[in-house]
Amino acid sequence: MNPGLIVKLRPSTPWRMGPASGQRDQVDLILHSDTLFSAVTHAMRLLGRMEAWLDATAREATPAVVFSSLFPFTGDVRYFVPPRTAWPPPPSAKVRWKGARFVPQGVVEAMLQGKALNEDRWSVDGESECLVASGRVAPFRIALRSAAAVDRVTEAAALPHQHACLEFSPGSGLWCAAAFASPAARDEWNEPVRAAFRLLADSGFGGERSRGWGRSEAPEFREGTLPNLLLSTPAPVNGDASQFWLLSLFSPRPEEPVDWGRGSYHVTPRTGRVESPAGSGARKKSIDMVSEGSVLISASAPVGRASDVAPEGHPHPVFQAGFALSIRIAPPRPRAAAPEPVSAEESPEPEFPETPEIEPPETAAVPPNVPEVQPAEVPREEPPTEEPPFTEPEPEPEPSPEAPVPEAPEP
Question: Where in the chain are the domains?
Answer without folding.
Answer: 2-329
